What we know:
The protein has two domains: about 80 residues, no CATH class; about 70 residues, Homeodomain-like (Arc Repressor Mutant, subunit A, Orthogonal Bundle). By secondary structure, it is mainly α. Helices cover about 80% and strands about 0% of the residues. About 5% of the residues have low confidence. This is AraC family transcriptional regulator. InterPro entries: Homeodomain-like_sf, HTH_AraC, Tscrpt_reg_AraC-type_HTH.
Amino acid sequence: MASSVYDAFAYTLTALYYENFKNAYRSEQGYIKKDVLIKDVLVYLNNNYREKITLDQLSKKFRASVSYICHEFAKEYHISPINYVIQRRMTEAKFALTNTESPLAEISWRVGYENVDHFAKLFMRHVGCSPNDYRKQFKNSLVEQAYLLPNT
């Protein structure tokens, strides 16, 4: 009888240990999957920011709800996925405005906006000045810096 009590006790401990391990593994795997998912969303946004991106597209592509993607992305990066795309586009536009002589329509198209007026409005809202003013300010600051350099 003592052996059957010990066997039952050992079986119960083994079952509890297995359940505990299984649950810990699941939560660890869930955390890893969530972390990877959000990083995959970021990589996707960086690689495709020039394309039209919607939350529904992200939801279908990553097989997660819109609210889940938005919540987890914002928790990790402190910005929504769509605002991240806009910010990424504005960064690329600022670089193009200061490093090329490309027309505004071309820059707008290159960073993902088909409508140059829409691009200009978003640029104004996010950067604080028009794209043309941004380019002029940059050129003026270069001229001022050139005057400040000592003649050799």
